[in-house]
From TrEMBL:
GO molecular function, a single term: tRNA (uracil(54)-C5)-methyltransferase activity, S-adenosyl methionine-dependent
Classification of source organism: Bacteria, Bacillati, Actinomycetota, Actinomycetes, Propionibacteriales
Protein name, as recorded: SAM-dependent methyltransferase related to tRNA (TRNA (Uracil-5-)-methyltransferase)
Entry keywords, A to Z: Methyltransferase, S-adenosyl-L-methionine, Transferase
Example GO BP: rRNA base methylation
Amino acid sequence: MTTVATAVGEIIGPLSVGPIAHGGHCIARHEGRVIFVRHTIPGETVMVRITDDSHERYWRGDAVEVLDAAPGRVEPPCPIAGLCGGCDFQHIAPAVQRELKTTVVRELLHQFAHLDSDVTVERVGTDDSGQDWRTRMRYGVHDGKVGLHVHRSADLVGLAPQGCLIAEKAGRDPKMLDSLAGQVHGDELIVATAASGVCVIDSGRTLMGEAVVTEQVGTHSFRARADGFWQPHRLAPGLLTSQMLLALDPRPGEHALDLYCGVGVFAAALDDAGCRVRGIEMDGPAIRLARTNVPRAQFVAGRVDRVLSRGRHRADLVVLDPPRAGAGKRAVDQIAGLRPRRIAYVACDPAALARDLASFARHDYSVTNIKGFDLFPMTHHVECVATLEPTR
């Protein structure tokens, strides 16, 4: 039997750490090979344990010893930060996290959309600790214990005594979660901390609270499934709604499309502005809730590109908030074909946003404004809102 040599587990270095890259890692090089290294900062010198050597052109690794630290390095507040795969940036001061995210967003916009933007990722709210913001959590369960997944692995690491620090306090008590773990049929617990209380769900079964929770955005109450999509940062729905309205500047009587509309948060704001609103969302339960949340709007269940390809649609304004993979060329083609006067694109992945902006540019739509918000502190994720208008 032939044994295949592997570098996994080997510690190499010292390595000089280069620029930040999209995905929560920095770029280093060893003997001509690129290594994507987690738990470090550009400019540092580190020792690296190889965690993945399955790709010929690059490897992955974790910094296990910092020989020369960069400004901005801090002691992670959570004791499992280097083990859990959820927080990429706990070793970095929050202000420096935003600087790195700004670099990534600008580079991706330039690389994929040929845009030289001065966008800056902005702090959200008054608390700059990066903690106690996440209202939706997914935990793994094994042998009656609740934990969080190791990066790029099905393995679990047990929770710290104070629970996951980025989760809202009301729903993160490890004792409460472990007390429910014995009732779990599957291998996952979903915890939603909503305005109406905490809900815990296992494989579609409600173990605590109500399966349909109530959330508050401005003067509106929204019913949403606890295991369905809701912006995880507690300030995100209100912030993104206000940014959407600034981007679109809606006028009474205009026709507005809310694409990937979820339970109708943006639709409600556009309806308040006097628009005739139609929402499209492929999640049937979300659409049913949207119809009760915003009764004056019309809602259609189905894939956005397929619904737009059928029938006649009018759109003076479009807001889209697609999943992480982005809208994609077909949906962009359909949206641009409606010739809305303004488009607000809400994006949780800057690479997907940049690719879609390039597609819009081929339809003579240009970006007139773009803003970035640190709605996922302690992680590499970032939210952007881009405004597009036709050039002719």
